[in-house]
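Can anyone check this?
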Amino acid sequence: MPPALSCPCPSVPRTPARRLLPRHSPRRVRRAATRAAACLTALCAALLALLISPVPASAAGTGPCDLYASGGTACIAAHSTVRALYGAYGGPLYQVRRASDNATRNIGVTVAGGPADAAAQDSFCAGTTCVITWVYDQSGHGNHLGYQGPGGVGGSDTAAKATSESLTVGGRKAYSLYINAGNSYWRDGHSTGVPTGSAPEGMYMVTSGTHVNSGCCFDYGNSETTRKADGPGAMDAINFSKSCWFGGCSGTGPWVQADLEWGLYPGGSTSWNPNQRAYTGKFVTAMLKNNGTSRFAIKGGDAQSGGLTTLYAGSLPGGYSPMRKQGAIILGSGGDCCNGNTNLSIGTFYEGAITAGYPSDATDNAVQANITAAGYR
């Protein structure tokens, strides 16, 4: 705010001009003129300060993980390359490594609770290429995702290129985590809050229906710490792909399905779920929640506008009760990738989170409203 003005600016005399000089001495006129000039100078200075003072970037105020916490199902992992998922988060979002000298840099937000600082990445990667080596966990649990491959967290994959796709969020430039075949990320989080066994959990991600295939398996969620296919219930992850695992699908997708290990489930059984629908838009919200013993739900929506559609809400498939989750986090591949085999899926990741506990429908709806308000373009 500009400083308040208190100078006693004199009023203009109402005496006709022909009587001004006889009634007012030259000294009095000079004093009035000096006071008026001082007042005008102060006013101009205040207006100039207001015009040139920096205007801080606006923050989101409330993020998806604030909403989950309010609903009693706090995030135990929160990942994004485009924005903060908490209103107060001001730390790094991800790390890039450039090819010219293998130097690394953390890319943060422009302001706490706000969008990514893409300008910092552009400056660091100018004249060379960069890959995304880490996607940092904003929840405070330390569940950072490293790329699966030599020099990363183990495995045979590679890190994704950092500049494959740019977008805007809230009018600010950002970069996605653009997964091509042979890129994936992983974390063993069984001792850092990720639900295990039959503990309930929820998760969501914002992805894209324009960069997707039927390769196995573009997942985000709970996976095996062994990186092996350890049987039904060892995984609980969102899958977004054109993969028709059990056959009989209607259309070509892509669909939001549940990767529960030993199958991508469109609903509560191996039969095709007629309530499924394809999401081919640029920005898609995909959700999955599982109480670990009897029930799970799959939801999808447009990440730019509108609400969520419940694609399935009901009993777990036969053989999956109770769940046997191991507590690793996977992004961009299936659970048995990539320790010896290479990921075949492609997909796009903008943001996502995993919760402890089974979120309510009201919380799901609030998170979707927050996503659409973020301004994905």
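Reply from J.R.: I decoded it. Helices lie at 17-23, 26-52, 64-70, 118-125, 361-373.
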